[in-house]
Amino acid sequence: MKISEASRASGVSARSLRHYEDEGLIVPGRFSNGFRDYCRSTIDRVLVIRSLLESGLPVRLIREVLPGLTDGTADGPKAVCAEFLHEVQDYRDRLAAHIAALSDQQAALDTYLREARRTGP
């Protein structure tokens, strides 16, 4: 399928598809006229990439682990290296700390607003 069809099928913009190709995350085929040709397995791979990116993982890590997630072997995610899992855990821990800090800020603002409304002008 052409890039416009692949974009519709995956929910990812044509620009993002080109970016994934530039980053070495996907390798679409080519028609004789040079246009990109996306097969179903490439669309499936794009969906995995999009999910990982939405999780906040950097392209560098996705590029490293993607073959083990999408190559169709029985190992799949089990083949993910320990270093990758460590980096994902570190990212998750930083995210949890950030969420905790934001929750503390929200609680402080809630307290301020309660006090401000109670004492009012």
Automatic annotation (TrEMBL):
Pinpoint the HTH merR-type domain residues: 1-68
Q: Which Pfam families match?
A: MerR_1
Q: CDD domains given for it?
A: HTH_MerR-like_sg3 (cd01282)
List keywords of the entry alphabetically: DNA-binding, Repressor, Transcription, Transcription regulation
| Keyword Methyltransferase among record annotations | no
Q: What is this protein called?
A: MerR family transcriptional regulator
Naturally occurring in which organism (per UniProt): Streptomyces drozdowiczii
